[in-house]
Specification:
Chains A, B: Residues 7-256 form the ATPase BadF/BadG/BcrA/BcrD type domain. The structure is a homodimer of 293-residue chains. Chain A is α/β, with parallel strands linked by helices and 293 residues long. Chain A folds into two domains: 5-113 and 274-288, ATPase, nucleotide binding domain (Nucleotidyltransferase, domain 5); 152-270, Nucleotidyltransferase, domain 5. Chain A has helices spanning 42-59, 82-90, 103-111, 152-167, 175-182, 188-197, 200-204, 207-215, 219-241, 254-257, 276-288, and strands spanning 5-11, 16-22, 27-33, 70-76, 97-101, 117-122, 126-132, 135-140, 247-250, 269-270. In chain A, strands 3-2-1-4-5 form a five-stranded mixed sheet. Chain A has a five-stranded mixed sheet with strand order 8-7-6-9-10, with helices on both faces. In chain A, strand 1 (5-11) and strand 2 (16-22) form a beta hairpin. In chain A, helix 4 (152-167) crosses helix 5 (175-182) and helix 8 packs across helix 9. The two termini of chain A are 21 Å apart.
Chain lengths: 293, 293
Amino acid sequence: MQQPILIGVDGGGSRCRVRARFADGTPIGEAEGGSANIFSDLDLALHNILSVTREALAQGGLGEEDLGRCHAGLGLAGANIPSLAEELASRPLPFARRAIETDAVVACRGAHADADGAIAILGTGTAYVRRTGKNFTSIGGWGFALSDQGGGGYLGRAALVAALLAHDGIGPASELIRLVLDRFDGDAARLVEFGGEARPVDFGGFAPLVMDGADDGDPVAMAIVAEGLFHVVAALTRLLALGAPSIVLLGGLAARYRPRLPATLQPYIGEARGDALDGALALAATLADGKRP
Amino acid sequence: MQQPILIGVDGGGSRCRVRARFADGTPIGEAEGGSANIFSDLDLALHNILSVTREALAQGGLGEEDLGRCHAGLGLAGANIPSLAEELASRPLPFARRAIETDAVVACRGAHADADGAIAILGTGTAYVRRTGKNFTSIGGWGFALSDQGGGGYLGRAALVAALLAHDGIGPASELIRLVLDRFDGDAARLVEFGGEARPVDFGGFAPLVMDGADDGDPVAMAIVAEGLFHVVAALTRLLALGAPSIVLLGGLAARYRPRLPATLQPYIGEARGDALDGALALAATLADGKRP
């Protein structure tokens, strides 16, 4: 009998990554493709997951006929929304079995090599997970409309808001404000049009400007980062209160926030022992082991 | 020759109102209908404007053949967005002439009987206008994504954000939080689903809870209202700095904010001498007078 194939999927708003290996650990392939955001487009997400999976399998000389022996661990942003999870469960996928968790939960599995611990994802959005045995406690990660405090989308949007306030003579001007308005040729109406259509990742494009500004002592940038940091520190503190022995910081803003954390938190920050795809593969392994019904 | 008809339109996200009168002041009729939000649906907005206009004309026994002698003053939310204004200008309307300003500008005309002054619209959104002669200076009113600080949508969304933070053990709990979560049967995921689809007016449905909570000393509600008030006071102060002799507060939250304003601002708060439809008619009159090309 052929051995099972494990498929690890890390799917988020900007891209979908897949790593495939045999149950005995032999690597098969790894590929990357477009968005797997089940919140904004479930059909597109499933399409991308499958096409990236096929690509990863093809790297190891495997094809369509092997999908049926795949055990897929799917880490998907939005999987914590019950209606989406239900909708997802009802859709056919050609895999032998599948298990679904949020992208944050599989990232936590990966960062701690499937052992206990906690993570903070500080990227376009923000999300926090504390694992104790089989229990995963999620904090934040509720999406841009009501959550994501301190994430790149949040910082970038705050910069645009500050630019409008300055434009209206209400808020303070600064070099950051000038740089932001310059991106719209100084035209506030164009900034507003951008803001009305922007996705979190589009707002996030301004986050580096904000972080750089804060490093350079720009007062508006410092105020925006201070507010983001306040939220990040509150969430990290909550993870420690839940008993987390160490917290791994992940995401594009991890390196920007880490030196800003108070000294009391620094000793608890750990290094990742694996990535989200390792975590998704660990989830897939629970299927192949028969540990999970 | 038949005398011109003046049509005043006040169009916003939740409804469109029209008042019709003859150029000599004789009333014709007044009607109300669905949304005239050119930002979200220009075709629907134009359709509603025309059907409500027909209804107002019909009240005075006028009909389709009279549209051609109508001079329409349109006060429309979103008219300050250049791309929308262009699109709107390119669409045919059966009126003799038309002039378009934002809903906030016509409200300022109306509140001060077409004389100089300033207004603050404190409704689902917030917007401020200072008029000096032919110059209208707008502050805020850039829409929910980046502006509207202190408005009902803003306060309501802040309450949902606070409820999620409390749910996650990060933010403080309070009676307000309990009332908000109760609306979703205590299910944070349902709150998130609501928040992901909610329009500003949907978030605004929670604003009365927030204002009532602040009146009752609820600490979370007080913090949310204090932040909104900070923005309102900053904008009112800016209007005074621009030389406004008095400011009329309009919108559903005007009565809730007024007693909260600092004593230094109270002497500048005035009473409205007319409504937004009066202002739209004053705009229409500039067309009939031939004052405006």
